[in-house]
């Protein structure tokens, strides 16, 4: 049965800016030139190339899918019109494995914008100013920060900051004729549906402006409605946490080990699966601290930190801990700080303990994923490289490395500082608000969301997928845990015009064998990405045969090699291949082939999905 996304999603596909302004103090401001609104993933001549008929598609797929393990779920759409040309069990919810990262990518881009950066910083605080600081506040205790308040409309003049009044954090979207981001009736963007209670200081209101583009705040510059980039916002970034190494999908053949897809699944039970007003100096009436000054390393959502100097040529290591240590020592000297200093952590950007109950212990032990925290190096690894094992506690590892570098920098610089080295870096007991309001002593910024999405898709990086989804959830006022992230992903799919019937997501990386999404929904996300400039990175980042990706050894030497880009997915019970292909006549198609219930026959299932894609490339 043929269906079309074009009419249902027309308004959403024309949207060219992210749906929210991230909270002040948590995400870095936009920098550089905005991505061109004219960029399209589908060449103009593809719109006039002949569209294959349903019979033609069914005919070429009959042979390749004649023999395969498990049950086939297939959807093929025209990328220009969104029309579904062929379907086989396409509407049934199925475990997509790492193909789910396509929706994660669309969610991050749609919510945060393509150029947003996450920042990791250090701040100096004084526990003497804390009303309650006797018991450490665990990382799982999350309280929403005071978010940014979008101005009423793109054409309205921003009101002076001094007159801005706090507003409740729950809201009801009001549809307007020209709005390009209209939640479906089933969507619920209100934080009130979550288990947490917004604090009275929360001022964020994600009400869409008439144009669908958030209006600039007094310190922001307006972003033209047709542009796909988000409006500037002065805010620090959440830093995700690293997870045990390995890839995202278990496999018995062909895909790079530990790159993002597990080479073998542990067990069938598991998915086979604002501006600061000071430096934290107490007022004269406050008691003077008698102990060391407290320096806090604040996790801002960057799980791709490097252990050396910041490297502008890399995504993993764009922001380096060595650079942060150098900046921090200089910053302390500039502030006139001397004497004893001790380091603590703030990981309160995320909620929960970072371990999804849908992941088996084997996935953690074998390094396919690690505890998800807003601070990590190299996607939860101690060194760069997807073959590296992940560490059990990514944030603690990063903090220990930073402490060592800080000590070395103090010694080399001759600064009048004495760092009190701690065997385990504790969580700060200072209230979260104090940390958020404190000026940065040092600060490093991640690669933009667009580049992180490319990396995540190419290497199927589970840790990065989970962090991006939590960052997106936090940005819109959802609880930044696996529940909030999964719910947001479902709502983004609905708002893109995708049928979410049967969709039931448990995580953002696809490791959970309990995830459910249809093949038709996966092609729907790709069709939306093909038409919406802001989501272009979701298609640009798709692995290509023979490239440094999970397709490095697949489809090479076939008719599909030069005309296909696709996201792989592998669990012991499910294998998928989802992407785009250009026919010999120049038409661009998007496809998803998922084989479920394969009973660990990973090699045979991959061979069948590859044959199907090669056949589509010869339509």
Automatic annotation (TrEMBL):
Composition skew (Pro residues), residue ranges: 207-243
UniProt signal peptide: 1-22
Keyword list, A-Z: Carboxypeptidase, Hydrolase, Protease, Signal
GO MF annotation terms: serine-type D-Ala-D-Ala carboxypeptidase activity
Enzyme class: hydrolase
InterPro entries with a match to the protein in the record: Beta-lactam/transpept-like (IPR012338), Peptidase_S13 (IPR000667)
Annotated spans, Disordered: 129-302
GO biological process terms, semicolon-separated: peptidoglycan metabolic process; proteolysis
Pfam families noted in UniProt: Peptidase_S13
Ranges annotated as biased composition (Low complexity): 134-206, 244-283
Documented EC number(s): 3.4.16.4
Protein family (similarity comment): Belongs to the peptidase S13 family.
PANTHER family: D-ALANYL-D-ALANINE CARBOXYPEPTIDASE (PTHR30023), PENICILLIN-SENSITIVE CARBOXYPEPTIDASE A (PTHR30023:SF0)
Official protein name in the record: D-alanyl-D-alanine carboxypeptidase
